[in-house]
Every structure is written in structure tokens, then in C-alpha cells.
Amino acid sequence: MQSDTVGDATDGDPSDDLETDGGRGDPQVHTVQLELPDEPGQLLAALQPIADNGGNLMSVVHERGERTPRGRIPVEIDLECPPARFDGVLAGLRDAGVTVVTADAEAYADEVTVVLVGHLVDTGLSGTLQDVRDDAEVTVADVALSAPDADAREEPSAARLHLRTREGCTERALEAVRAVAAEKDLTVIEPLGGV
Fold it and tell me: Which 8-state DSSP code applies to residue 65?
């Protein structure tokens, strides 16, 4: 296990209004557990939203030799920020496509898998995923897309979404998926058994 301690993520322009100390309440320590693909630049991409949202990195445990059940790398981050800013940090991580497994020990313990069928590429798959995340406090753990080739653009595509929700929030997540699908004229096949 490799443990790195990282300095203040808010170093830089002193006029930056995202100061950690004294900004919007007393800073508190928060712990976030992530899963990252084993690809160059993924750790940096996960740390940037923390800095951008006023989080002060205290420690990063990056267990590159370990793997989660889906073959990803577990990362645990301790950061300091006022409580009012922590939701912004989590939203920034989700916006960057980072899989948040736990946030302050509140596990995204429930999982559900659904399939969306329709013209996903034409309606913007990344926007669809963002709408689901925004509406239901879910994290998208995995996406598998099956799209027709260029000669068959009129054919629908399908995406399998593996979602993680806070305990007891699965129905809320499904409602968000249904609402987004209805807005974009997509069909929902739900829920599927475990992945």
C-alpha cells in the first residue's frame, strides 16, 4: 500500500474565494473513497475537483497493487473543508466522472442495473448520465454501450447502467432514470440482477 500526503490544494492566487480556513464555517475533515480505472492521469483527474471546490487535501491512499471487484484501483482521500462546501466537492467528483464509493462513511451501498434503449448517441449519453446523477444522488459505477455501426444510424442503441445509490434510495434512482428516459424518448428495462 502506498500512502502519499498531499499539501494544500488551494495554493495559488490569494484572491481566490475558495479559501478553506474561515470560509463558510469551520473546516472539518471528510473522507471519500473512490474507485479509479488503472490508467495514467486518473488520480490527478480525481484530485482536481477537490481543489477546484475548495477542499484542502490532507492525505491520499492510492492502493495501486489492490483491485476492487470490477478491477479498479481503490483510493481513499482525507480532505478538509467547511461542511457547506463538501457537497460541491462531491458534485465536482461526479461531474468529472469519478466513481464515489463512500463519502464520510455514508456508503453508496445499494446497487441497481438498468438498460436504456433508444437513440442514446443522438440524445447525448453523457448528458443523460449527468441528469440521472443530478436528480438522484447516485454514482454511475459502470456503463456499457452497444451502438449500431455508421451505416445503421436509424437503429437504436442500448446502454447498461450500473448505478450505486445511498442505502434505501434505489427507488428514487429508478424514478430519476425513468424521468430522464421519458424526456429523451428512451425505453427503460429495469432493474436487472447484480452485475
Answer: T
